[in-house]
Write a structure and sequence with these properties.
The chain is 61% helix and 1% strand. It has 347 residues and is an all-alpha fold.
Length: 347
């Protein structure tokens, strides 16, 4: 943390996609993945064109659930701080004052909710665009709409996460109001503006997830203007938003700062996504995306090499995740002694 005459301001967690936000987006769309490739064409022929306004209305129930989940996470974080059982207190002892930093804990809660919604959105997208199970609880059309609404709510959660963190910076700044707003904006939304500890890396990672999640999540609604092929190419980068959101969380989240089951669980949840992505790449719905012999189709050798590289990368991700989960070497720090009286910098 940077030295300051006032208590240091805590760092964020979650996506930023977002994390995050998101997405998925975020997602930080964080928060979406390559979908709408097989179901959209058929659905669009028999149903009115999907609009952002209609999806915003449809996203209200899902958004209310997201708020309930966020409130539950906030209550859990707050209770753990009050009981001094949270890793956050070990990292930054001054944050034992739960009431004094309630806005930061609310930002954390929105971050965790954003990561969960980004995870759901990516899973739904991969189920829609890859090999599907024999039975699904909802029709492909309803799953696709749910995929879009969770994507929109992921973006909203990521934005709430970032805005609350900026508001916390403003609240703990003692300079003039315009200086406080300027500093909070730079540290929260400008890459490189936050120069303390691991924030030098984690903050730009989270900001990248946010700034990619918003346009990638909304491009679906203008795909008829940019062209379906361009949209499909851009849409695939949403998985990058999700990866950035998870990276931001693992690198900067005080709740998963140390080794332990909670951090391992975050890693474990990435295994289904890596496996679904590998299945999606090995059995693509579009014939043009299938991996045949080099030169056996009209595509270029460069395209063939990229498709092969994607499959190898996804397979490598599955193997790496299994190795991390089995070995427990997940990049966490060693938990300090219970009687530590030193003030930990977030670095």
């Amino acid at each position: 943390m940077k030295p300051s005459p006032t208590p240091a301001v805590p760092e964020p967690t979650g996506p930023p996609v977002a994390d995050t936000t998101d997405t998925a987006t975020t997602g930080t769309d964080t928060t979406d993945t390559d979908t709408h490739t097989t179901t959209t064409t058929t659905a669009d022929r028999s149903q009115p064109r999907v609009t952002l306004r209609s999806d915003l209305r449809a996203s209200i129930p899902d958004g209310l659930i997201a708020l309930v989940v966020t409130a539950a996470v906030f209550a859990l974080l707050y209770a753990r701080i009050k009981a001094k059982t949270s890793s956050t207190v070990s990292i930054m002892p001054f944050m034992a004052d739960a009431g004094g930093f309630w806005m930061y804990f609310l930002s954390q809660a929105f971050g965790w909710a954003a990561l969960l919604w980004a995870w759901t959105t990516v899973v739904l997208g991969l189920l829609l665009s890859g090999p599907r199970p024999g039975r699904l609880p909802l029709s492909p059309q309803r799953l696709e709409r749910l995929h879009r609404t969770t994507s929109l709510n992921t973006i909203a959660l990521i934005l709430a996460h970032a805005l609350l963190f900026a508001a916390e910076l403003v609240r703990h700044d003692t300079t003039r109001w315009y200086s406080r707003l300027s500093t909070a904006f730079v540290e929260s939304f400008v890459p490189g503006g936050y120069d303390s500890g691991t924030g030098q890396i984690a903050m730009p990672v989270g900001q990248a997830a946010l700034y990619l999640a918003v346009p990638l999540g909304l491009l679906f609604y203008v795909r008829h203007r940019i062209g379906p092929k361009t949209w499909r190419v851009l849409h695939r980068f949403v998985i990058v938003v999700y990866v950035l959101s998870v990276w931001h969380t693992l690198l900067y989240g005080t709740n998963v700062w140390y080794d332990g089951w909670f951090r391992t669980t975050v890693w474990l949840l990435q295994l289904p996504i890596a496996a679904l992505l590998l299945a999606r790449l090995l059995r693509p719905a579009r014939r043009s995306e299938r991996l045949s012999r080099p030169g056996a189709h009209s595509g270029s050798r460069t395209g063939w090499g990229l498709r092969l590289g994607g499959r190898l990368a996804a397979a490598g991700a599955v193997i790496a995740l299994l190795a991390v989960i089995v070995s427990g070497n997940d990049g966490g720090r060693t938990v300090p002694p219970d009687d530590t009286s030193s003030s930990h910098n977030h670095d």
